[in-house]
Amino acid sequence: MSISSGMNYAPTGKPSPVVGKGEFTFAAAALDHGHIYGMCNGLIEAGASLKWVYDGDIRRAKSFAERYPGVRVARCEDEILSDPEVRLVAGAAVTSERCGLCLRVISA
């Protein structure tokens, strides 16, 4: 991808782990904006493990999972939120839905 791709631009860098394998597990949700890919790339480069993805559009979630081998497609948001291994949820919801997602994650 290039910078001209706009919303789907997802920079990648060199891995620079700050955590060991399995020490920091995260999930991705609400794939409304392409910057989710850049967020996930950065977390993975820092050593985090991407375990789950959830989006209300199953096609979008499956497409995301193809890009990140090993990620599991959740059937619902609660499947991510109830997983005790998940320490962070990266989200790219439309602006009006970000607060709600954040509050649900914090409550979990």
Outline:
The chain is α/β, with parallel strands linked by helices and 108 residues long. It has four helices and four strands, in the order βαβαβαβα. The protein has a four-stranded parallel β-sheet.
Topology:
Blueprint: E1 25-29, H1 35-45, E2 49-54, H2 58-67, E3 72-73, H3 77-81, E4 86-91, H4 95-107
Parallel strand pairs: 1-2, 1-4, 2-3
Describe this structure in words.
- This protein is an alpha/beta fold.
- The protein contains four helices and four strands.
- The chain has helices at 35-45, 58-67, 77-81, 95-107, and strands at residues 25-29, 49-54, 72-73, 86-91.
- It has a four-stranded parallel β-sheet.
- Strand 2, helix 2 (58-67) and strand 3 form a beta-alpha-beta unit.
Terminal Cα span? 34 Å
Radius of gyration computed on alpha carbons? 13 Å
> Largest beta sheet, briefly?
4 strands, parallel
| CA-based shape | globular
Provide the succession of SSEs: EHEHEHEH
Q: Count of helices?
A: 4
Q: Low-confidence stretches at least 5 residues in length (pLDDT < 50)?
A: none
Q: How confident overall, as mean pLDDT?
A: 91
Strand order of the largest sheet: 3-2-1-4
- Helical residue percent band: 25-40%
Please provide the count of β strands: 4
**Estimated share of beta-strand residues:** 15-25%
